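[Protein data]
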Amino acid sequence: MRRILMKTLTTLSAAVVLILNSHAVFADREHNLFERYDTNGDKVITQDEVQAAKTVFFSEADTNNDGFLSIEEFQAGLKKQQQQLQNTVFATFDSNGDNAVSIAELEAATGGKREAQLLKLFKKIDSNADNSVTQAEWQTFKTTMQEKQADKKDARQEKMFSKMDLDKDGKLSKDEFVKHLPFFNRLDSNEDGVVTQEEILQLVQKRDKKLKE
């Protein structure tokens, strides 16, 4: 059975909040945003690249091919995207490629940062205390976290959907979805129309500081 220790974005559980905010992870591997959006590999993300990625998301999420996203299609698309992110982050920690994440790999990937917090989390997921996290253990932990956060998560997604639904017709057109770029604009701190690794690192550092306060 595959062993796994991970979860993700935004809408993320405590596990990913701890992990994705690690400076070492950013330094050792390209940030997941770059892996997803920097399609030409020039180390900057443009609005066109983000919009192209969102167009792909829209096409895949529009399962009835009517040219619009319902709230159900939108939420299902986010769930699929989050699963893909889980796999990406897991690969970052699984340094020896054996489909398992050990405590040693976890600590090495984070450069020793938040060692106590990560160890506590690892032990919490490792229900049989054998120092490895199986897929079954992870799924149990994830399900518990999702149940606790379900109402808040649904509310956040519904709020996001409502903001994008400019004509308030209860569905998202491709134009409404693709051109909605608040996260890009927030990352583009110098407002030059592109997002650099440095700008993403600045956001990571700010979140890291808040977690320490």
Summary: Residues 14-212 form one domain. Residues 1-31 have pLDDT under 50 and may be disordered.
